[in-house]
Design brief:
With about 150 residues, the chain is mainly beta. It has one domain: Immunoglobulin-like. It contains one helix and seven strands.
Length: about 150
């Protein structure tokens, strides 16, 4: 029987998806459709991510197609990793969309990393529209320490 590794991000992706759905319903009264509407910080697009363990390291891959590497900012403060930036429109002249599904403008994605991570443990690389952030030792799962319960009446 193989030992299942604990997922420190369990529920994170589901929560992000649900928050996006609720924001769309509240702001636009609908769940689907991506009409051409102005994006603000409150309604900025959220890039998709994969978070997985590779040995003892935690790897975060974020899809940022159409974003130049110099337009991506990765920061780490008080156990929170934040990736932000902007995807601009690179169209010259006036255009008429037949289908408009991609979001443009400012994005920001933050996640809390496990305790004990130092900023020197984090590296980021950009390749072919993906930014891959590696957190050395971020997937190491220390065993929970059992606390003895003493009986005061004995």
């Amino acid at each position: 029987m193989t030992e299942q590794q604990r997922n420190p991000f369990r529920g994170f992706l589901d929560m992000a998806s649900e928050m996006n759905r609720m924001r769309n319903v509240g702001a636009y009264g609908q769940e689907t459709g991506q009409e051409d509407r102005e994006r603000t910080h409150a309604t900025a697009w959220v890039p998709t991510v994969d978070v997985f363990a590779k040995g003892q390291d935690l790897v975060i891959r974020m899809e940022l197609a159409g974003v130049a590497p110099q337009d991506i900012d990765v920061s780490f403060h008080e156990n929170t990793l934040t990736v932000s930036g902007e995807r601009g429109r690179d169209m010259d002249g006036e255009v008429s969309f037949y289908v408009h599904e991609r979001f443009y403008g400012v994005f920001r994605r933050s996640m809390t990393l496990p305790a004990g991570i130092d900023d020197n443990d984090i590296s980021a690389e950009f390749d072919n529209g993906l930014v891959e952030i590696t957190v050395e030792g971020g997937a190491a799962n220390p065993e929970p320490r059992r606390i003895e319960v003493r009986n005061r009446t004995a």
